[in-house]
Amino acid sequence: xxxxxxxxxxxxxxxxxxxxxxxxxxxxxxxxxxxxxxxxxxxxxxxxxxxxxxxxxxxxxxxxxxxxxxxxxxxxxxxxxxxxxxxxxxxxxxxxxxxxxxxxxxxxxxxxxxxxxxxxxxxxxxxxxxxxxxxxxxxxxxxxxxxxxxxxxxxxxxxxxxxxxxxxxxxxxxxxxxxxxxxxxxxxxxxx
Length: 192
Prior knowledge:
Blueprint: H1 14-17, E1 26-29, E2 32-35, H2 42-59, E3 65-68, E4 73-74, E5 88-89, E6 93-96, E7 102-103, E8 106-108, E9 113-117, H3 123-137, E10 141-146, E11 151-156, E12 167-170, E13 174-176, E14 184-186, H4 187-191
Parallel strand pairs: 4-8, 9-10
Antiparallel strand pairs: 1-2, 3-6, 4-5, 6-9, 7-8, 10-11, 11-12, 13-14
Protein name: Putative restriction endonuclease domain-containing protein
InterPro entries: Nuclease_put_TT1808, Restrct_endonuc-II-like, Uma2
Pfam families: Uma2
């Protein structure tokens, strides 16, 4: 049963989320369920795949790990029990450097870097709801890749715990990844 068969005004937790078996993928943001359907476009998949490849190649034999959707990232507010967590997202790409955050269910806690590839069905959620939740959770870098404009916006968390003005990169640029000293991402390959 999925959440829409229940009360639409209800707030849900990870404990309930784990029991949904309606064949759909879901996310929870502050207890509000969001369906992950329809499936991403081929262009979306290609961009996410190339970004993942570049991160994965760099991270070979390094302590950080990179994961692609569908990979549950639980973002607790404080130290609540796992089943009481109200935010569970499935970013297109998540980089986690703190191994203690990883378990068989995915990641519990803030990844170091998250990439979302925008699509018509998810843009509003990625630009507003997830942006605010990732900022609150302390995700150090949040990337928004726009397949239509062929741009990537990179938000970096500041000392005040807030995202500042984004770096904006076009399809001919390279991006120096802020959480690593020597990694650059090649956007011509991403948007080819």
